[in-house]
Design goal:
Number of helices: 5
Helix content: 25-40%
Order of helices and strands: HHEHEEEHHEEEEEEEEEEE
Strand content: 25-35%
Radius of gyration: 17 Å
Length: 244
């Protein structure tokens, strides 16, 4: 569904709830990432993208080329977050939580995440992870993002979401989302996703469970963005743990 077909009267929690979470869980198991369908209208995408120019809304700006992370720029939102950003985080967390707990059980790991995002963030803050991690990213022609993982500290939520704010094709070319999984005793596997405007992509933060002869093992995963060939690509990154 194109974002122009998305009913504007729906709230962001209602849009999150309309996603097929059974399908998403299956795709996460198979690929480590899954598209949600539309979460934002085209107008909401434009409104969030335009916030990039309001420096007072952000706690820091990162020049990726200077730090050898790739090329391009992103900004971390300061608190309080824009209302729509906070609504999306609060609505997505309980939908992602069952997948996170299921994966932890398969891998024989603790599942420390409580039922609410606020309770989980309080745990992060008690552990010294107090810096906000919600990101607005901007890529222009020639920009790209190196493969990486958004860990930020000892406490990690294993899933995160990126939302496309520009329409691929008319708005930009290239700029595909990259996911690379290191498979046990085998060559790495890559997955490429083009983000439709207003759609979210759920993906694994650090690793994911894969079936093995001994049960389940953790396959490390990194993500990045391919080179933007032309135009402007902006995305909203929603991370569910704070940074030290």
């Amino acid at each position: 569904m194109h974002t122009s077909q998305l009913t504007s009267q729906l709230t962001s929690p209602e849009r999150v709830g309309r996603a097929d979470w059974g399908r998403l869980a299956g795709e996460m198991d198979a690929h480590g990432c899954a598209l949600t369908g539309p979460l934002l209208t085209a107008e909401e995408c434009q409104g969030i993208a335009e916030l990039y120019e309001e420096a007072a809304l952000f706690r820091s700006t990162v020049d990726m080329e200077r730090l050898r992370f790739g090329r391009g720029q992103y900004r971390y939102f300061a608190r309080p977050f824009p209302a729509l950003v906070e609504e999306l985080r609060q609505a997505l967390y309980p939908r992602l939580l069952p997948i996170a707990r299921d994966w932890a059980a398969r891998l024989g790991r603790p599942a420390p995440w409580p039922d609410t995002l606020d309770a989980w963030l309080a745990m992060c803050h008690e552990a010294g992870q107090t810096k906000s991690t919600q990101i607005l990213l901007r890529y222009r022609e020639g920009d790209w993002n190196a493969l990486h993982r958004d860990l930020y500290g000892d406490l990690v939520f294993p899933l995160q979401v990126v939302i496309g704010l520009d329409e691929p094709g008319p708005g930009y070319g290239g700029g595909e989302f990259l996911l690379v999984e290191q498979r046990p005793r085998a060559q790495s596997r890559g997955t490429v996703t083009l983000l439709p405007q207003g759609h979210g992509l759920v993906f694994t933060t650090r690793d994911r469970p894969v079936a093995s002869a001994r049960g389940w093992s953790a396959a490390p995963v990194r993500h990045g963005v391919s080179t933007v060939r032309h135009g402007l690509r902006r995305t909203l990154g929603l991370v569910f743990h704070d940074a030290a």
